[in-house]
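Per your request, structure below.
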C-alpha cells in the first residue's frame, strides 16, 4: 500500500471516529491554491478543520509537533477560502 492509499485509510478511520463522537462531516479533502484540509466537520455550533496524521505503532512523536507552523498557515488560508464559498 502506498502513502496515498494509507492516507485515505487514515482519513476514513478518522471520519468514523469523529462521527461516533457526534461530528457531522461536511467536507473531505477540500483544496485551494494554498493547500488542503483533510476533513471539515460540525461539532455542535463549531466548524472544525481537521488535519489527519497517521502514525505507525510505537511512534511516540508528540502530536503537537506533527503539524508545523507552515502547515498551520496553509490550513488557515485554505479555511478562509472555504468560508468565502
Amino acid at each position: 500500500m502506498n502513502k496515498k492509499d494509507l492516507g485515505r485509510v487514515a482519513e476514513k478511520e478518522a471520519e468514523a471516529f469523529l462521527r461516533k463522537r457526534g461530528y457531522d462531516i461536511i467536507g473531505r479533502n477540500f483544496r485551494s491554491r494554498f493547500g488542503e484540509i483533510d476533513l471539515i466537520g460540525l461539532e455542535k455550533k463549531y466548524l472544525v478543520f481537521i488535519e489527519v496524521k497517521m502514525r505507525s505503532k510505537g511512534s511516540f512523536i508528540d502530536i503537537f509537533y506533527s503539524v508545523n507552523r507552515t502547515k498551520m498557515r496553509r490550513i488557515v488560508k485554505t479555511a478562509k477560502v472555504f468560508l468565502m464559498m
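The mean pLDDT is 90.

Regards,
D.
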